Amino acid sequence: MNIIVLVKQVPDMDTVKFDQESGTVDRSSAGKEMNPFDLNALEMAVEIKENTGAKVTAVTMGPPSAEEVLREAISRGADEGILLSDRFFGGSDVKATARTLAAGINYIGDVALIIGGLQTVDGDTGQVIPEIAGYLNLPHASSITKLVGVSEKDITIETDLWDSTYVKKAKFPVVLAVTKEVNSPRMASFSTKMKAKKAEITTLKLEDLKELTAEDVGFKGSSTFVKKIVVPKATSRQGIKLKEEPQIAANKIMGILKDKKLLEVQNG
Amino acid sequence: MDNYKGCVMIYAEQNNGKIHPVSYELLNKGGEVARKKGVKLIAALIGPMEIDENELIRRGADAVFTVKEDDTYSFPDENTYANTLVHMVKEVSPDILLVGATNFGRSMGPKVASLLGCGLTADCTALDVDEEDGALIQIRPAFSENILAHIKSKNFPQMATIRFKEFDEAPINEDHVGEIIEVSKPISMPQLIEVIKEIKTNQVDLVNASVVVTGGKGLKSKDDFKMLKELATLLDGVVGASRPLVEDGFLGKAHQVGYSGHRVKPNLYIACGVSGAAQHIAGMKESQYTIAINSDPSAPIFNVADLGIVGDLYEVIPELIKQLKGE
Ligand SMILES: Cc1cc2nc3c(=O)[nH]c(=O)nc-3n(C[C@H](O)[C@H](O)[C@H](O)COP(=O)(O)OP(=O)(O)OC[C@H]3O[C@@H](n4cnc5c(N)ncnc54)[C@H](O)[C@@H]3O)c2cc1C
Q1: Partner B, chain A 26-85, Cβ-Cβ below 8 Å
Q2: How do residues B77-93 score in pLDDT, each as one tens digit?
Q3: What is the ipTM of this complex?
Q4: pLDDT for B174 beyond 60
Q5: Which CATH number applies to B2-182?
Q6: What number does CATH give the domain B211-324?
Q7: Which CATH homologous superfamily contains domain A2-208?
């Protein structure tokens, strides 16, 4: 059984610098890491591999330096890595990204399971995984919170939808998007780190993806474009700020609660 | 159905036969866009037989297109819903298609977009119509709330998912008339994902609570949430948490307020020991009245508070609880 895990290299969002004046992000200001949700996708694939002997391939699209994120995936249990990298892929929106990744998956072929993170922390559209499923013409399930079981033919998971939790069973091949609750990702071990260092990373270019032309990818293949970027004015309220003894402060809050009729519940 | 070509179509999400409130918010915002463009507003409703579509008309839909069947639509399988919505879109040819950014909408929406081959802008917080070409301007926060991107589509339908609780619900107008048009379901729709069962969970309803008392890193231990819980209970509300506390396991993810958690819009929001990072504010800025308690007078949470108390939450909250109990 072949499993593909989709991963993305993202800036460390807790340290990345942002220029409020110009509205630009200084990506060089922060370290790069694997999108946190992808760690859970990878962990799920590796758990399935341990139970079934499946082969796990990590796939990413990005600049040549995104090779690092594939090595990290291998150090955390993936068997190999494939990088989709070509200057034609630049400027892709969700649609172009999904079509390119779907073509990469078709290139690999004979895949039972494709797993990705629910969303990325930088782009944060949460749309790429379901769109890949659409372009592959496969069913998908999203918001996955638990892996229940896997057989040779299908996989059973739990998902949070409609303000409830549902157990779903999906026949292979299927595409899944997982949340952070699904598992706790493992750390890399010394031996897998060594393996990752030596691993051959395969790079695919547009010409390798026979189903696509330059019209289908990158900015040309995108269906949306950014017209402008606005830096929002910080929301602020004309509030009052008090520095008082706790008793007076609490009393002030009581006054507000009375005004807002929020005490009625309690007083009957 | 040619007379609806070029309309604004909203996907009226329903859960287990009950229309989700985001559908009414979409009717409100979608109606505004439809009026600007001078086109009709229609709702697409897919679900079990029991749903009442008239509420959508009372809230502004000029027509409701429905596909109803118990077996197929009693469970949330995004694939069957997406196939059905695509079928409806092809029948009607709307210019604009809006879907609520709930868990379900965020999964079904992109499936629909990929099956139609159109673009899709996620999680919009505002929409506008370009005065020059009449195109839909899709506005969404990006880079964890730091910027607002104005996005346009290159082809049709112009599609966007819209954040829940971002807009008010369309008001009820008993006199508004509209037609209900039943559409047959797509002929071939293999069900490849089987929903085995629903597990009823007793999750907190943060989103619909009228009072939310949120704890941030100013809380020293998990145990201290008891104090906030007591305050919340006295006000008939629920407790929320900032992200770091959820990550430290103080409270479950269902309690997280913010950009990567829930967006809340209660009558009263009390932030205790929360600094007010942009990602937190994204989840509570629509609250009707906000009280912030923080020991640091320069904490950004005070910029969005109606009443700011500079002080130690460990002193203020017990005192407030005491006064609430009338002691
Ligand atoms: C991609 C991304 C997504 C994110 N999503 C979210 C999200 O959904 N929700 C969210 O909340 N955050 C989110 N964050 C994190 C966010 O940036 C902040 O780190 C977080 O909100 C800070 O939480 P806090 O206010 O509880 O903690 P801190 O920033 O550490 O603030 C603690 C505050 O408590 C005050 N304090 C300390 N002791 C006391 C006391 N005794 N009495 C009163 N006040 C006291 C301090 O003055 C301080 O202001 C996200 C970040 C990223 C990068």
Answers
A1: none
A2: 999 999 999 999 999 99
A3: 0.90
A4: yes
A5: 3.40.50.620
A6: 3.40.50.1220
A7: HUPs (3.40.50.620)
pTM, whole model, 2 decimals? Answer: 0.87
Distance from CA of A199 to the nearest CA of B (A): 33
pLDDT of residue A24: 65
Q: Do B193 and A169 make contact, defined as CB atoms within 8 angstroms? A: yes
Query: Ligand 1 centroid to B245 CA: how many Å?
Result: 8
Residues of B in contact with A266 (CB under 8 A): 234-236, 324
Give pLDDT tens digits for A98-109.
Answer: 999 999 999 999
pLDDT at B181 over 50: yes
Tokens at residue A81, please? 């890595």
A15 shares contact with chain B (CB less than 8 Å): no
B315 touches chain A (CB under 8 A): yes
Residues of B in contact with A161 (CB under 8 A): 76, 78, 103-104, 107
pLDDT at A22: 62
pLDDT tens readout for residues A74-113 = 999 999 999 999 999 999 999 999 999 999 999 999 999 9
Parts of chain B belonging to CATH 3.40.50.1220: 211-324
Name the residue ranges covered by the structural domains of chain A: 2-208, 239-268
